Description:
By secondary structure, chain A is mainly α. Chain A is 80% helix and 1% strand. In chain B, helix 3 (110-121) packs across helix 4 (128-141) and helix 3 packs parallel to helix 5.
Amino acid sequence: MSLTTVNASQLTVTEQVMKVSKNVLSKITNAMLLPIIGITIFIFFWSIAAQSIHTSLGTFPGPNAVVKQFSSLYDEHVVEREKAEAFYQRQEKRNAAKQEKNPDYVGKIRAYTGKETFFDQILTSLFTVTCGFLVAAIIAIPLGIWMGLNKRLNSAINPIVQIFKPVSPLAWLPLVTMVVSALYVSDDPMVSKSFLTSLITVSLCSLWPMVINTSIGVSSIDSDLLNVSKVLRLPTFTHIQKIVLPASVPMIFTGMRLSFGVAWMVLIAAEMLAQNPGLGKFVWDEFQNGSSDSLARIMAAVIVIGFIGFLLDRAMLELQRKVSWDKSSASV
Amino acid sequence: MNLSASENTEFLEKNTPQAFLNISQIDMVFPTDTGGFTALKNVDLKIDKGEFISLIGHSGCGKSTVLNIVAGLYQATKGGVLLQNKEVNEPGPERAVVFQNHSLLPWLTAYQNVELAVKQVFNNTMSKAEMKEWIEYNLKLVHMDHAMFKRPDEISGGMKQRVGIARALAMQPEVLLMDEPFGALDALTRAHMQDSLMEIQSELNNTVIMITHDVDEAVLLSDRIVMMTNGPEATVGEILDVKLERPRSRLSLAKDIEYNRLRSEVLTFLYEKQRKVENISSKAVTPKSIPRKRVSSQ
Lengths: 332, 298
């Protein structure tokens, strides 16, 4: 009798150990193994499919061709940097020589005007999207808070938001381009027109998700919390600072993440169409270039664009985790 | 002295000692799509300083509405509330509210939640050190000093409600309004909280209006139990004086004849005189759902 109970308890211990190890195993599987399997299968089908697609620019690039292009893009970058370095050195030498002859001579350093490499374009795009997004956030969040607090304002502005929200960046772009070139006239421009055009287009498109989410977040604050504020007779500013903002932070961040995603997509399209510097221009240039490597280079750009978009979203998520009190809302 | 009738009432109004808190002939009509819904009709109640009043009645009878009017969160359609002869027409910290579901700000610690109230109320009268001391004193009063720096999601429901009470007490209110403060707690925690409240009350002797569903809670804590009739047009049905000696202990009261008499009176009122006729279709317009909407639309 006692033997059987001991056996039973032993069984449960081993069972438990197995359960725990199973849990750990399944976690590893979910986090690592399955994505790797998924990616492997994708690459396999990609390379199979690529071989059988023949375009006027040659066979559709498979994974190998893309990897090769990544390294050649990097090499080009290094070469271009060396050229730039040499260019500046030559200038310095020339200036030094002139200065030797004439001590009053003040040397000019001219900027290198060589071709922007893939990596330069990435940085340009990242800078533009960040600026455009920040401009949108500075407008959208206060506007959203105001709309959330004021029902009448919300009713007045909401139709405008709803109509402009689904507008494609490509529709805005010609208008923005014309308006920028008409209004932004300066002999010594702080930023280039193309940068401004991209920035405004990005802002116009990424404004709306932030406005909508912020206003919803603010207007759906628990009425009990608002009553607390009323009982305490908090002045408007303190009310916004202590109650409204923290309570709607999760929704504001949801809007910001959506907007950043939109901004990144819009930017690539805007750069392509408007020939503004950036990754979009890179893609367009390669397309126009039409060399046998072009498709592989575009595919490399596609992967980089996707990867950067993913990283941007992750960065926003991390920021949300840092700032927001509500950790549960800051999940993937 | 020869006075005409109108002069006489004037004289009386001037010279009769007014109640500390005077809820004077309140009507409350909520606008609905099909016209007005009269939630309260002629609710009249005078409360002395230091009194502990329980409002009891079936759900949907307008208890919360009365409390919200006293708090200033609603405006009565007719009649009004006088606190120390001053009319109540907006919410304020002298009428602190303990809400049913604690309503602590989830992003602040217990200490910070109380601090928000203290800073707002005593900004001009207390130094920083005094404020700190006062916040800690109030948290100690509700036995929450060990978890001052925990956030609401890190503490239990009973603890949250304690912090809510500490926040209300820290405003040093003239009237403390409690809307089913222990309704969401389990029976053991509730009993514990009731004992805590009695202990605090013996120390501070606040004027309290508490809404409750719990007959035992009402008898145990109150000086007077105000029983409300069913809505619509709910009003004060009966008022029961509870003259049990303090401090009260739930154990010894369980066998007390007077306690059991009071208890059965309340039960008789609730389940014989004001038996709630359950009607599922009429539930859609319980006053509870209407006030919520009104508040959110403001």
